Amino acid sequence: MYKLDGTDIKEAFEQWNTLLYKYAFVRVGNSEIAEDIIQDTFIRAWRHRDLFDEKKSSLKNWLFVIATNLIRDHLRKTRTLISPLDENINDATDIEKESSRKNLFDFVLIKIKKLLENEQELITLRYIQDLSLKETAKILNMNYSAAKVAVHRAMKKLRELCDNDSIQIETVNRSPVAKL
Fold it and tell me: Is 2 exposed, middle or buried (0-12, 13-18, 19+ CB in 10 A)?
């Protein structure tokens, strides 16, 4: 069995810190909490590095599993409604366009938060983090077929929630896209 060392963890941090942070932020809706969760993810990875088995999972997936468990723990403890994301608008000429996109993204995030926790995880990993179905299944400890069906059902449920408010969601190029 391969043993992780400090260099492996440092390289993993440099490579996947941002991706893991985005995942945590979308799930918890607070940048400080997301940062704490990701910090704890790498601390746990270091403390339990002897449990990592490269034959069972990639390092990236193992880190996502740790982060997912920490997010679940946090959400169980707090049970708070997540506020919409704050997004920086950099280009003054595109404020109206960006504002519309942000409002739409916030709307979809609010609807995602109405889904069951496992449905939120599936949609966040698959579409917001743009992970493959295989990676999503491994992170959530599901077989590929079950994950495929669960993602399909979660997206169907999300579409229904959005349709109730006159927004249509369709999947284009693997990403949920809203249409007014």
Answer: exposed
